[in-house]
Amino acid sequence: NSSAQSQTELRNTMGGAYFANQDDCVLIRSDGGSDLTTDFSSNGGTTWTPTEIVAGNVKRIACFADWEVPGGTGTIVHVVWLNVTDDTLYYVDVDAADGTSGTIRTIDNTLTVSATDTLNRLALCKTRSGNLVVAGSTQTELFCYESSDQFATAATSLSDGYEAATEEDWCLLFPANTGDGDDVCAIFQDRSVNQLTVKMLDRSNGAGGTWSETLIRVGVAEVA
After folding, report:
1. Statement: residue 2 has pLDDT above 80
2. Spatial contact of 183 and 148, defined as CB atoms under 8 Å apart
3. How many other β-carbons are positioned within 10 Å of the β-carbon of residue 152?
4. Which of 51, 75, 87, 217 fits 196 for a cystine, CB–CB 3.0-4.6 Å?
5. Quick one: pLDDT at residue 191?
6. Using CA atoms, how far apart are residues 90 and 81, in angstroms rounded to an integer?
7. Phi/psi class of residue 7: alpha, beta or left (left: φ > 0; alpha: ψ in -120 to 50)?
8. Assign residue 24 a region: left if phi > 0, alpha if psi is -120 to 50, beta otherwise?
9. Rounded Cα gap, residues 168 and 99, in angstroms
């Protein structure tokens, strides 16, 4: 409908819609002014109420909901984003049941974020053990962080799964179904060789863990 369309067509980047139940849901997006904004609906998406979380120059967003973990419950959507104004990676939680957001937390303020949205990459998941893992790339850095307290304290630096900062490879993170609840699975598009792979982060192998890789498909076309 026109109400939903008016919100989604403004996006630069967007997560959702995330449904807490059949009626209550949120969209999380960078709006036309590059502000981080939530749109809350209490009628299943028929109408939306936007709320600005933070103003200014949001260049990439990644989201992951508690219920996306097998057996996970709750109504919280975890959100990370890159801000070009202060070259910082941030975190906030959003409640899909009412659209409210929590405390904004800094994960890394030493990055160099590109002003061009498509030159930055970002992925987020929650592991089966309850940790949040965020990974990404800018044009000059690769990074991967883990937190057991929603980034209330300094995150743990992990081995990063990206291969080269300037390639803008795509990555999606998921909780891994292994014997270790801290492990992470990634679906990875290597744009330099047009390949789709599965990467697994073994958290028990060294302080930051190590990644292994299995080829899924060759000849996968690049996306922007």
Report:
1. no
2. no
3. 11
4. 217
5. 87
6. 5
7. alpha
8. beta
9. 31
Confirm if 211 and 201 have CB atoms less than 8 A apart: yes
Q: What is the pLDDT of residues 76-116, one digit of tens each?
A: 999 999 999 999 999 999 999 999 999 999 999 999 999 98
Q: Quick check: pTM over 0.85?
A: yes
Cβ-proximal residues to 93 (8 Å cutoff; 6+ apart), any chain: 76, 77, 78, 79, 101, 102, 150
The Cα-based distances of 93 to 12, 59, 172 in angstroms read 20, 18, 19
Determine the residue type at 152.
A
pLDDT computed for residue 1 by the predictor: 43
The rounded distance, in Å, linking the Cα atoms of 74 and 18 is 12
Q: What is the mean pLDDT of the chain?
A: 90
Task: Look at residues 126, 131, 141, 152 and name the one whose alpha carbon lies nearest to residue 63.
Answer: 126
Pairing mode of beta strands 36-41, 25-30? antiparallel
